[in-house]
Each structure stands twice: as structure tokens, then as C-alpha cells.
Fold each of these.
Amino acid sequence: MTIPHPLTSLQRELLGDVAELYAAPDLRAKALDSTLRFGVIADPQYADVAPDIANNLYYRHALTKLPQAIEALNQQPLDFVVTLGDLVDRDWSSYAAILPQYDRLVHPHAVVLGNHDAQTIAQHLNHRAALPKSYYAFCLAGWRFIVCDGNDVSLYCNALNGDDYYQAETLLAQLQLQRQPQAQPWNGAVGQQQLLWIEQQLIEAQRLGEKVGVFGHYPLAPHTTHILMNANVLVELLTSYNIQFCLSGHDHRGNTAYIGQTGFYTMKGMLDGAADVPFAVVELDDIGVRIHGFGGEISRGVI
């Protein structure tokens, strides 16, 4: 298990219970020859605000939707559950409402931090500490799972993050000049240090004969307004090592793309709709990757 940027004591103190979102999952041992199964939740995005009915966004409903998904996932024999970001939409107090819902989860929990998480956390830190990095990797049953941090280089960084904010501004301006759809202030990018770390993980997995799956908040493909600002760089890297899949959230409509041997799957956002509770169970074995969708999420077969 690799966490290249553990929280500092000051970050941990300021974050309080939210610090648990930066911890890698506490995995249980598993036989190498059995199917690996994990649950997926994307974008609960809780806030104590009225719904945006015009855009089909129901912020308070996370407190009723998320327990439904967790109850269903608790009934499944899973190795872990991953939330692909945006546990909250805004307001630091939102975490005090949403985190207790996850206390009901009986499986190990891996978390990807989304752009709304990053913005909320950055506002709370208020330049008292740098916005923490949240990329790490963990291994289980012949698989290596890489969790990417798309807020690594973003407009949510503060002065204590070095030149990350300036890099984000520069990249955004370049993409705007090129009229790229992902040139949006609410998107982020993966920085050079993280890219080098990801390649090290891929090299190590290749050396050990491990299969690789990637989790991120920002989609990498297809090319839309919601992809990571430097998605092309990461796609080129990941596909050059023939990783098995990449799962993301952020674009609540969901999506699918295949590049080479790699499936890029964007999961539907739980925030959307008054009653829909989309989530998924993913099965991994020697045959391939199978995504079983629930509550409106799309199922995908073996690739």
C-alpha cells in the first residue's frame, strides 16, 4: 500500500473527522484465485440546500439515497467499496451530515476526492495549511488499484501548494485558446510529480505481473467538458501499459469509452434525480471486467 503524501499533523488537526477520507482502505486478505468484487458510488454531493429542479439536482436527498446504496452493498460479498468523489457539494458542515452515513458500511472504503470536496476543504483550511494531495495505491489478489488526484493542479490549491495554482491557471488559459471543451475552472489536472508516481506504479505492477485498475474523479475519455484538463497525457500513459479499466465520476450523466484494451467508465451521479439511487458492483477475474449497474446505472459486459 503506497501513500506518497500522508497528511501533516496540522492538516490532520484542521480536517478532524474529514481526515479519514485521505486514508487508504483497510483491506481484508483474499485468495488469489477468486473473483474480486467491489462496489462503486459516485457523487452523492450532499448539501443542506433546496433542490435545483431545473437541473435535476437534489442535494438533501443524499441522506436518504446513500443509506439505500450502502444497505444494498452491505448485502453483497465485496472486497471493498469506492466512492468516486464529491461526497459534498459545499459547506464544511455538510461532512458532519454525510460521513455518519458511511459508518454503516461494513466493507473497507476507498475514497477519491472530487472538485466539490477540494473546494470545500480548501475554503475550510483558508490558507492555514496546503490542500492535501489524495493519490495513493493499494493491492489485492493480483490487482493494483491506483487512486488519482485530479485536484492536484487546480484552482482549489492555495499559496501553500507551491506553484500548483499557477500551473492550473496557465493550463486553463492554454486550453481556452485551443477551444478545448475541458477548459473549465471546475476541472483540474494531474501534476508532473503525480504522473511520475503513477508510471512508477505501472512499472512495478508490470514487474510483479499485477493487473491494474484506476480510480479518479475526473473522466479521461470520451472527450467532453468534464474530463481531466490534461486527460490526454494520462490516457497515453495508462493505455501504453494496457491497464484493464479506469472508473470515474464528475459527469453525472455517465459515459463509456474504449481505447485500446482499456475501458474508461464514467458512473452516474447519485445527486441527479429525486429518487434514483445509481451504484454498481464490479467483478474482476481472468475473463475480464463486468460492471453490474443498479438504480439506473448501466451494466457493462466483459471486455
Amino acid sequence: MTTNYVKGQGSDFRNEIQRVAIIGAGGTVGKPIAQELLNTGKHTVTALTRAGSQSTLPEGIQTVLVDYHDEASLLSALEGQDALIITLSITAAPDTQSKIIQAAAKAGIKYVMPNIWGCDATNDSLVNSGLGWERLPRAFDEIEKTGVSSWVALICGFWYGHSVSMGPATFGFNFAEKKMVFFDDGETQVNVSTPAQCGRAVAKLLSMKVLPEDENDRSVTLSRWLNKPVYISSFRVTQKEMLQSWKRVTGEKDEDWTVTYESSRERYEQGLERMRNGDHDGFLQAMYSRVLFPNGDGDYESKYALANASLGLPQEDLDEQTRNAKAMVDRGYDYMTKRD
């Protein structure tokens, strides 16, 4: 945008986002985002879904069938939308997001939230870790180069409950044997979030005015984060704190658990080797071990101001979220399908 205030915009400029399209509105983060947007009463929310999708969508959402690899299908679905939120499965074809971004620009969509929900995609050290994350910032460049759309990326860390429930490859919990692996000393702080917190954050962002009215308008507007990351978090927590929370929730004692220690870097290298051998759990091991390096790459809160207060996000309770994680473990949560 060439000017920073509403008073400098053309007569067709609308200082609010009314129509929002979501890809993946039935998924882990897409569903709470869609629900929170509907809850505001300020948005018409449209889910772009593939033919044959079995996802359950929030009540009140509109749906449009789409073929992500057919530009005409995408353009038809995106016509008239103000904003687009992309949440794609890890199994989506690598070029899917690029096709969606280009279609969004051709449809005139001004605001795009790309498929970046997790670790800090602006951190070159993390991005170049051999985990395929180098593609993440490419979405930022591609969106900007359209000359039509601006991006907003939600940096939220790992999803806490899902991560805990996945077992040893992620945060080191082996529930069947009551064994815990601490990486290094187990005291590295890492920012994590819940999908519900992500949903609230996105709804708050897209419910703001886009620009301040003039130089005297001090209200928080979406423009603060256009072509920038938005850092949010539910908790900044260590592995030791996670295990203590689990014990509080379950009533288990220190003596019930066997604790061992491993180097995060060695775990990371082992995970990369497992990845090369086609082991998906190796990717999880490498990813979580890398973010928990003691250099602070997983603790973005210490480097940047969180947007929690600006967005009016609530302070969540760690033990409550650990209780939710236990419920996922008890009912056999499947991280590959994101289904119970």
C-alpha cells in the first residue's frame, strides 16, 4: 500500500475484511479459525473443499468445491473474497500453495495468510536446517511479487497437546513405558500454542480495521502486520515443566517415570538419517530436536514482542491443556491423519 491511512486511499477502499475464504477449514487449525471468525459475527466465511472431503465443518460456514490444480476452479471459488487463509495437509503436493497464491492474486484478494503455522519461518537458522522449511519464506516473496496481495503469517510454535500426545519423537514422552527423554538438560524454553489460541488470534487480526483513519488514530490495525509475522504463544515452557504438568494431571509420582538425557544435536542428526531412510518419525525427531537446540531458536518470545496483548488473547492454563493431551493419548490420537 502506498499510504498508511484511510484518508489516502481510493474511494473503493474498504477498511474492513468481510469475506474470508479458508482452505482446510475442517483441519486441526483451520476449524478453530473458521469457528472463531464465525463467532465474531463480522465475516462471511467460505470453506474451499476438495470433492470427496470427509472433514466436518463448523455450522454456518459456506462451502465451495474446488480443484486446487485447476486455476479456473480456484478463481471461481475465490472471486469476491477479501482474505484467504491457507491451511494445507503435510501430504499436499509441493506446488499446491503456489497455485493457490497465484489464483488469489488473479482474483484480487488483498490479504493472504499462507500455510505457515508453527516455527519461526523468518529465522534463517531454522529455515536452513535440512527439514524442507526453506520453502516457507518463499511464500512470502511470491505473495509480495504478485503486486496484489499482502501476507500475514502466524508464528505460533508447535501445537502443545498434539505434540505431547505424539510420543517419543516429539517432546520425548513414552507413555506406554513411562519413560521421558530430556534433550540436553531438559530446561530449554520453547514457545508453544494451542489451535484454539491460533483461531482466536486470526479472528482478532481479521476483525481489526485494516488501516488507521489518519495520523491521529492510535488504534491497533491489521496494517501493523502486513508482510510481517505475528508472534503469538500459549506457553513458553520446558520439557521438565511439561513432565511436571503431566504428573500433576495424572497424580503420577517422580518414581513412576524413568528419565534419561540425550543431546538435542545428536537426536537431530539421527532424525535426519532416519528421514533419509524414509522414516516419517525421523522427520518429527529431527524437527523437534532442532527447535529445542539450547541456542534459543524455539524461544521467539525472548527476541520479539508477542502480539497476545494487542490481540486480547487469554492466558491459558498449562495443566488444562496437558489434560487435553492426555485425553488424546487415551483415545489413540493418530498424528498422520489428525484423527482420533
Amino acid sequence: MSNQHTLLLFNLLPVGSNISTWWNFGSMLLTCLALQIMTGFFLAIHYTANINLAFSSIVHITRDVPYGWMMQNLHAIGASMFFICIYIHIARGLYYGSYLNKNVWLSGTTLLIILMATAFFGYVLPWGQMSFWAATVITNLLTAVPYIGTTLTTWLWGGFSINDPTLTRFFALHFILPFTIISMSSIHIMLLHTEGSSNPLGTNSDIDKIPFHPYHSHKDMLMLTIMLTTMFIIMSFIPNIFNDPENFSKANPLVTPQHIKPEWYFLFAYGILRSIPNKLGGTLALVLSVAILMTAPFTHTSRIRSMTFRPMMQLMFWTLVATFMTITWAATKPVEPPFNTIGQVTAILYFSFFIMNPLIGWLENKISTM
């Protein structure tokens, strides 16, 4: 009976007939979230949030706990897969004008911010050398906040340096925030079904709709199979592809790594941070690099929704994609010429997309009326 109800629910949720594979990443993100929660719960059972035991507990999980190596690798690789899917999901939203569904877009951007915070807290938990120093650099940015910066940093650390209370707090936050992500995801999906979804042409989807099942559910299953197969291939043959070699050493506050950098999915924001010499300016740019996504619904001035029919914005969009990849690469390099110059140029190009969006929309409207 429950299967019949499920099929009925799918049939009562019609979707646009022309949505493409790029719309499958929403279901892939939900699968990643479920996978992260299941593997994370397993790891939490065996993890010890103590600076003297955290690193050893990770080694214990991977070596001694049955299938612990698989759970640990799935959790680490799943985090990277989560961000790959969410960045593609956001890029699709920018390209096809999905941000014009304001509430859906704003809830999704809020989800991204919470997810990034959760991933940051989780990156610190293994208490490896890069985890410790990345946490030191990033949390120190709070001291740039006028008047209350030092107080905020001390509160977050639980003392005057990153120590045992810091690790305990980060573990608690990393465990609790996924429940917030579940709640926000539910709100995001409800808003999606209330406001509707976009489509490649940017037209009104109500004109031509088809049942979700079997037309799009089968595409979802195909993409999920490809994603999970890719994850298991990576886990089996190249499990450390996303790991920094420095993180295989226990955290040592007395030895600073030659190049401190966060996980790859934070590198674009870290590159923007590094491109500005001023600490407060860099911190503001770091926050703005993500928060600026929230401005997209309010700066759209074009009469056309999708970039499918906007060649100038297509050029800006692919410049943004190239900029994102370049700044991610440059952030892995030392802060020296030419990498610091590349970082500064790409940071300007990154923000230029959002600044130029309303200007190009206005220009397109002028040209269309000629």
C-alpha cells in the first residue's frame, strides 16, 4: 500500500517536460546528505573528541573497526562529492535563472552557508596537522571584527588558543548542524513545490508538465547510480585523492606546515581572502564570496530569464566558471608572484559577474527595443 501511495505522490507532482539532466543534482544532493548522516553517525560512535586521542581514534576506526575504513573514506569522499554536486546545482541555477524563485534560492543559499560551516568543523576533527593549522588561520579571522572580534574568537576556542575545548565544541557543532541541514532541506523542497522550478528555456513550466514518475525518476536513478559508482571507484582505488599529505601527521602546534590551505571546496573563498592584504578586507571578501549569491534575485534586470537566449551573459557565466577553477588552483600555490597576482585578478573577475549581471540585463533590454 505504501508503494502505491508513493507512486501516487510522484504522479501528483508534475514537472516541466523539458528539464534536463542538470535538474537531477537536487536528488543527488539529498542522497549525499543521507550518506553523510549515516556514515557520520557510525564514525561518531568510535570517535573521541580529545586532542590527545582524536588522531588515534581515526587510526583506530580505519584499522581496527570492521568496515571502519570504508565508512571513514565514504564520509570524506562523500563530503567532496556533496560540494561537487552543490556547486553544479548552483551553477545551473545561475545559468537558467532559477534564482528568480526568490524563496527557493535564498533557502538554498542559506543551506550552502550551513553546509560550509558543517564541513569546516568536520575538517578539524581528525586533528591532523593541516586540520589544526587551517582551523587556526580561519578562526583567527574573527579577530578582525571590530570591538567584538577577540571576544568571539575566545568564545569559539573555549580559551585563548585552539585546544581541547575547541575540538569538543567543533565536534558538537558538526554533529548538531546536519539536523539543521535536514530541516532547511525540507523547507527548500516545500518552497520548490510551492513556487515551481525553472527549465532550460526559461518559460512558464505550467504550460507543459508531465508526471515525475516514471519520466524523471528514472533519470534520477541513472544519475544516482553513476554518482555512487564513482564514489566507490574512488574509495577502492584512490581513496586519498582529496586528502592533504600533511593531514596524515598528528597536529603539532609547534610546527607550521609550509603551505597552509583548507579543503579544495573552500579554496575559491580562501583564494579571495588571500588576494586582499588587509585582514578585515580579506575577511569581508571571504564572507561576501558566498553571501553575494543572495543578491542574484534582486539584481536580475533582463526580461529574459534563462541565459540560453542571452549570449553576453553566457560569456560572463563561462568566465565565472573559468575564474572559479583558476582561483581554486591559485589558492593551492604559495603567496608569491605570479600566484598572488592571479588571485587578485580572478577575485575581481569573480565579483564582476554579479556586478555586471544587472548592467548587461539593462543593455539587453535596450537592444531588444531597438
Amino acid sequence: MSLFSKPKYSTVVVKKKDIPKGMWTKCPISGEIVFNQELEENQMVVPKSGYHFPIGARQRITALFDEGTFEEIDASIRSADPLKFVDSQKYPDRIKKYEKESGLTEAVVCGTGKIHGIPVSVAVMDFRFCGGAMGSAVGEKITRAIEIALKNKTPCLIFSASGGARMQEGIFSLMQMAKTSAALGRLAEAKLPYISILTHPTMGGVTASFAVLGDINIAEPGALIGFAGARVIKDTVKQTLPPGFQTAEFLQKHGLIDQIVSRLDMRDRLRDILQALYLRKLPTAKK
């Protein structure tokens, strides 16, 4: 080899600085690399692009409520196995797996608390538990959260994040659509506000029931919202679906969604809505 020719392989070994795993997350929109601690402190919203990563129910509750005011209710309600369902695994074994992975006992956390001093009853779904699927326990907990709002004469908020009805419970799951909707009917008769917040994703029987029955329906940016999946619809109607089909932005344009609100602005926006729908209608002595 010539003295001046370039070697095919370098003989210099460069030791790269190890970057601990789990410290950084890549934004799927902009490709930006975000420090996980910064992302968590920003409620899992990418600072520059505004992309909303999924968030757990308890993390959402912490960011939403006045400190020390939230009290969980009905935490002991859990799924039964009415059909003795078995596929590759027994249903109770799946439930135990979901409990371990999510740290929750069900796909929804319910309770009461205050937002800027305004009392509310709330149900917050968590997609990490069985994809947020609605079974008998989820329907019962949400119905009770609505009934507590009715009893205490306060507004009710429901944050949806779900793939739909839970197939392992069959008709018992589908019954929850009517059950929760009927409870909301009683809330409406009492002239108490119901605000529905749809997050990514909100699909199936949840969309077809309580998720779109709000006096005001709010969605987070970019949330996927619908009944059947886009591929199923396309195969059924044999037509090309319009761009952005089933996104929050598409549905707002077509009238299903009233507002699209960033998670970072949600607490203050709910205060403004609750003041308009609830506080102004109360007797002065109760404000």
C-alpha cells in the first residue's frame, strides 16, 4: 500500500459516551428529541410541536385538580368474568396483567375534587388498562360518578380514552352504553353540566355513548375519534376517505367537536366553561 493511500478501515477506536436508555423520547411529528423529564413536566406534550403523548389517569388528575382536593371513589369495583372467557389466556389472568402493568384496578379512575375552587365529579379513563376498554366495572364506575354529580349538584367531567367495548364481557359490556347514557339523561334533567373530553384514542362503544353526549365536547389536538376504524369503513363503503378522517380537527370542522384544547390549557379552559355553565346559575349564597 502506498504511503499516501487512505486505509480501508480505521485502526482508531473511539469510545462513544453511553447514553442511558429511557432518558429521551423522539417526537413522531417533528423528529425532535426531548428529555423525558422535560416531557413529563410538560404533561407529556412536546414543547415545540405540541404533539400529545398518552398520559395516565393519575398524572392527568394531578395536573387538573387543585392540590389536595381530589378524593377517589369506588376504587374497589373490579371486573368479573361473567362469560368465563378464554382465548389464548383466561380473562382473570389478563386482568391481573393489566393491573400489574398499569398500577390501576380498572380502566377508569373516578372521584370528586375542585378545579380553581369549582367542585366537580370526574371519571378519567386510562388506555394502559386493557386499551381503556369498557366493561361492566368501567360502566358502573362512570355511572356512579354521574350519580354523585347528581347527588352533590355539581358538574360532571369524563375524560375518554378507549378502544371501545370490552369483548371479553360480551353483552354485559354493550349494556354499559345504555346505562351511562341513561345516567347522563338524568343529569341533563337536573340541568347540571356535563363536559366530555375526548383524548387519543376514543373509539367504538365509548364514542357511541357517553363520549359525545356532552353539553360541550372537547378534544385534545390530533386525537383519533370514531366508531369503527378507518380501514373497516373504507372496505365497507368502497370509497377513499378524506384526509384527516376521524381526527379531532376533522370532527370539529364537521360539528361533532365543539373545541380543541391543548392539555396544557385544559385546566384553565374548564374553569372558564364551568363558570359560564355552572357558577353563574347558582344562587349568590352558594358561590
